[in-house]
Amino acid sequence: MRDQQWLIDRLDHMWMLLFPDIERKNTVVIRWKGKWKNKFGHIKMLKNKDTEIVVNALLAHEEVPEGMIDATIAHELVHYMHGFQSPHPRLYKHPHAGGIVTRELKRRGFGHVLVVEREFLKNDWYKLHRELTGQKPRSFLQKFFG
Ligand SMILES: [Zn+2]
Questions:
Q1: Residue 5: its pLDDT value, please?
Q2: Could you count the other beta carbons within 10 Å of the beta carbon of residue 141?
Q3: pLDDT in tens, 74-103
Q4: What is the DSSP letter of 65?
Q5: Which CATH code fits 4-133?
Q6: Distance, CA 42 to ligand 1 centroid (Å)?
Q7: Whole-prediction pTM value?
Q8: pLDDT tens-digit map of 108-121
Q9: How many whole angstroms from 72 Cα to the centroid of ligand 1?
């Protein structure tokens, strides 16, 4: 079951295995939140200087490939390592400048997860989102990540 503890373990495992060179310089918390259609997650520095990673709660449903959660966590960890919403020195002016996130994810072996993400977004997400939220279809923004 993809509960809160499962999500915490997922973050810890991914960090240990795939981002071992990135120092955890502050407390990083992660939680399920929201039912957004246009974003899978975001990262935010809280007032107490902890960093919070949020993953769209709809991704907890078992029909969603686990790769979607990995892709979301990895994406936010790249922001963290680049110094966005984290104590690391900021390496770029903008968090998504010139494909820096995608490049870093590919470099760390997340190419296959990016494919899962693209296919899921194209083929399944909007229908599943409607089913899970009971919302009617409407136009969507082009931005999927916070
Ligand atoms: Zn982002």
A1: 97
A2: 9
A3: 999 999 999 999 999 999 999 999 899 999
A4: -
A5: 3.30.2010.10
A6: 7
A7: 0.90
A8: 999 999 999 999 99
A9: 9
Residue of 59, 76, 58 lying closest to 68 (CA atoms): 59
- What spacing in Å lies between the alpha carbon of 73 and ligand 1's midpoint? 10
Residue 99 backbone class (left: φ over 0; alpha: ψ -120 to 50; beta: rest): left
Residue 79 alpha carbon to ligand 1 centre in Å:
7
- Quick check: 141 pLDDT over 70? no
Ligand 1 center to residue 19 CA distance, Å? Answer: 17
Question: How far is the centre of ligand 1, averaged over its atoms, from the C-alpha of 146 (Å)?
Answer: 5
**How many A from CA of 2 to the centre of ligand 1?**
23
Q: What is the predicted pLDDT for the residue at 134?
A: 87
